[in-house]
Specification:
- The chain has a single domain, classed as Rossmann fold, CATH 3.40.50.620.
- Helix content is 26%, strand content 32%.
- It contains 6 helices and 15 strands.
- It has a 9-stranded mixed β-sheet, with helices on both faces. A two-stranded antiparallel ribbon has the order 1-2. A two-stranded antiparallel sheet has the order 4-7.
- Helix 2 crosses helix 5 and helix 3 crosses helix 4.
Length: 266
């Protein structure tokens, strides 16, 4: 698989070329708006969704989805989104369609852990010949950054983590990735999975035409069969922040004492 497949067939002294556009799959998830009140229910074993405004996970939307749309706009092809969740996800899926995705798939299951989500997505994608599977680097609610790598492992595909740019050159993809202390340059030939980080693209606001067309774009619902492999024992909020202590600029010794004895960082 590559960005474009060129199939050449002799026809007397000429050659016939058939271009097969690339197929991109973008994994998107539902996430609470960052201004939402965080609370738990069922003896602190479930997130309380009451009154919460949900959005497309920003890493999925701003970086993975928008960059995928940009690639097909310049090179040709299609973008399919995939989401693991119930019918409450349909509104955020329609937003992804309004931004520019061609169609969408929703796997009808309650997402309970990373392995379950990755398994369901990988099983769906296994026979679809997607050229690239794009994910945001993490979700803003769980922050595990585990699903993209698990998808790649399940499909036995190369995985590129924390990609900040991608360019296509025929069947070759050149990527830049975040790395400790700098960046890595990566070249991939053929199908692969990537997790997209800040820098991959810019947020795109859906226009009225996109919003109207999203209503009629295909949204396929697939029944799930993989169960979660873990169980949540309890959620808890982080401890409340302590009181702020102000140290006079003329008293650095007191600042050092506080850092050493109370903050315990020196």
């Amino acid at each position: 698989m590559a960005l474009h497949h060129y199939l050449c067939t002799p026809n007397h002294r000429n050659l016939e070329y058939t271009i097969i556009p690339m197929k991109l799959l973008v994994c998107i998830s539902k996430a609470p708006d960052t201004t939402s009140r965080i609370a738990f229910t069922d003896e602190d074993t479930r997130f309380d969704e009451g009154g919460v405004q949900f959005i497309v996970n920003p890493y999925d939307e701003w970086y993975a989805l928008v960059r995928a749309i940009e690639l097909v706009e310049t090179e040709g092809g299609s973008v399919t989104t995939i989401t693991v969740g119930d019918a409450t996800c349909d509104s955020i899926i329609r937003k992804a369609l309004a931004i520019g995705a061609n169609d969408a798939v929703r796997i009808n299951a309650e997402p309970e852990d990373s392995m379950q989500v990755a398994k369901l997505i990988a099983d769906y994608a296994s026979d679809k010949d997607f050229d690239i599977i794009l994910c945001g680097k993490e979700t803003i609610d769980h922050n595990s950054a585990a699903v993209p790598a698990m998808i790649a492992e399940s499909l036995d595909l190369p995985f590129v983590a924390f990609a900040t740019s991608i360019n296509a050159d025929g069947g070759t993809y050149n990527l830049t990735c975040e790395a400790s202390g700098g960046t890595n340059k990566v070249t991939v030939n053929g199908a692969f999975v990537l997790s997209a980080a800040k820098g991959m693209s810019e947020q795109r606001i859906p226009n009225m035409r996109g919003i109207m067309s999203a209503r009629t774009k295909p949204l396929q619902v697939v029944e799930a069969y993989a169960d979660a492999t873990t169980k949540v024992e309890k959620f808890s909020l982080p401890p409340a922040k302590g009181d702020c202590k102000i140290v006079d600029a003329d008293n650095p010794a007191e600042l050092v004492r506080l850092l050493r004895e109370e903050a315990k960082i020196i």
